[in-house]
Recover the amino acids of this structure.
């Protein structure tokens, strides 16, 4: 009953409430992204994601990477501000609209870009029998430290154990893990980024000058 009816009801009610409550936060985040990185403020909408039954959809997300930065070091891809937005997942807040529309759920497998996932087959295919989620079993376990195949295994485990209590457990575990990772970043990773920027100052300046905000 929960899987077929109450899960969707939960998504509609709470996504609507959170959109109203967090809309000012989304506006402020959009302004920050525009000032920090320029236009566009949203992630590339030309890259559809795979939803339930592999149906493609556009996933909304604030942009956190600098333009034309693929293949560049982490400290080039992200500014200090955009890295925090990425780590805290504030950049994912627009996906509340995806949840309200029915493209996504609060909990489910994170959606892959169309063409970047495994080809259709029996292995791990169960992950496509449920809507993708804002968070999931892999994210609650620490997605930054979980490899690709393990994420797929987590997704299948989630599909086979969907319940209201399991969803609540994953929803509450996710921010706990994000806070832990944020503190780790501030303590260990951010100082390294600072050192890398010092060592490669000319490279960073050249990149920024060649890719100025539009």
């Amino acid at each position: 009953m929960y899987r077929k009816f109450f899960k969707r009801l939960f998504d509609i009610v709470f996504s609507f409430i959170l959109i109203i409550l967090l809309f000012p936060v989304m506006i402020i985040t959009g302004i920050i992204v525009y000032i920090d990185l320029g236009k566009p403020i949203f992630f590339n909408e030309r890259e559809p994601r795979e939803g339930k039954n592999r149906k493609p959809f556009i996933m909304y997300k604030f942009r956190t990477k600098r333009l034309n930065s693929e293949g560049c070091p982490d400290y080039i891809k992200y500014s200090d501000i955009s890295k925090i937005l990425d780590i805290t997942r504030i950049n994912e807040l627009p996906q509340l609209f995806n949840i309200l529309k029915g493209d996504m759920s609060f909990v489910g497998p994170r959606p892959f870009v169309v063409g970047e996932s495994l080809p259709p087959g029996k292995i791990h295919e169960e992950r496509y029998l449920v809507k993708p989620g804002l968070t999931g079993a892999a994210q609650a376990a620490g997605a930054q430290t979980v490899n690709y195949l393990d994420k797929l295994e987590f997704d299948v485990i989630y599909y086979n154990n969907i319940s209201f209590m399991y969803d609540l457990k994953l929803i509450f575990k996710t921010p706990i893990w994000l806070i832990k990772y944020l503190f780790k970043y501030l303590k260990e990773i951010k100082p390294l980024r600072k050192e890398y920027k010092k060592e490669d100052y000319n490279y960073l300046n050249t990149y920024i000058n060649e890719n100025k905000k539009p």
Notes: Helices lie at 2-37, 74-77, 80-88, 95-101, 137-140, 148-160, 164-199, 201-210. The chain has a mean pLDDT of 84. Residues 2-37 form the longest helix (36 residues). The first strand starts at residue 49 and ends at 50.
